[in-house]
Amino acid sequence: MGTYFAKARRGKIRWRILDAEGWVLGRLAAQAAHVLTGKTSPDYTPHEDHRDGVIVINAEKIRLTGKKLDDKVYRHFTGYPGGLKEIVARQYLATKPDRLVRDAIRGMLPKTRLGDRLACRLKVYAGPHHPHHAQNPEPLSLHR
């Protein structure tokens, strides 16, 4: 007897809204990646796209534990000689909190074409307002 794989869901994307206020960054990222990959659905199949989207609001109110605000360094390379840019988590959170949360969640998704497709369904906003009211997002209640 072979292994059963559920058929892929087709149709509309089911959007979920997640309020990041008071969450620790890593825990929020793990929960959001869990939903994006479809592991919360009963017909989970690792190689299928489960058509779930996540909208994260209040990214500016995220927490980092310990000394990570001062010790954690984010680096990127511009492509030019001497173009290694470094920014501390405290400054990153103050200037671009949505990018901080997006990078954390993106790092927990698969590093394949499927992960790229899932990352397109992740929307992160610094404040409490978002422009996706027409998609009727369901509130996502997760355990902390």
Helix/strand-derived class?
alpha/beta
CATH second-level architecture of the domain at 14-64 and 97-139? Alpha-Beta Complex
> Helical proportion?
25-40%
Sequence of strands across the biggest β-sheet: 5-2-1-6
User: Kindly state the mean pLDDT as a whole number?
Assistant: 92
Number of strands: 6
Overall radius of gyration: 17 Å
Provide the CATH superfamily of the domain at 14-64 and 97-139: Ribosomal protein L13
- State the end-to-end distance: 39 Å
Share in β-strands: 15-25%
Tally the helices: 5
CATH class of the domain at 14-64 and 97-139: Alpha Beta
Q: What string gives the helices and strands in order?
A: EHEHEEHHHEE
CATH topology of the domain at 14-64 and 97-139: Ribosomal Protein L13p, Chain: A
Low-confidence stretches: none
Shape: globular
Biggest pleated sheet: 4 strands, parallel
List keywords for this structure.
144 residues; Ribosomal Protein L13p, Chain: A; 6 strands
Write the layout of secondary structure elements.
Blueprint: E1 14-19, H1 25-36, E2 52-57, H2 68-71, E3 73-77, E4 84-88, H3 89-95, H4 97-106, H5 113-119, E5 122-124, E6 138-139
Parallel strand pairs: 1-2, 1-6, 2-5
Antiparallel strand pairs: 3-4
Question: Could you characterize the architecture of this molecule?
Answer:
There is one protein chain. The chain has 144 residues and is of the alpha/beta class. The protein has a domain at 14-64 and 97-139: Ribosomal protein L13 (Ribosomal Protein L13p, Chain: A), CATH 3.90.1180.10. 28% of the residues lie in helices and 19% in strands. It has five helices and six strands. The protein has helices at residues 25-36, 68-71, 89-95, 97-106, 113-119; strands at residues 14-19, 52-57, 73-77, 84-88, 122-124, 138-139. A four-stranded parallel sheet has the order 5-2-1-6. Helix 1 (25-36) links the parallel strand 1 (14-19) and strand 2 (52-57). The longest helix has 12 residues, at 25-36. The protein is globular, with a radius of gyration of 17 Å. The model has no long low-confidence stretch (mean pLDDT 92).
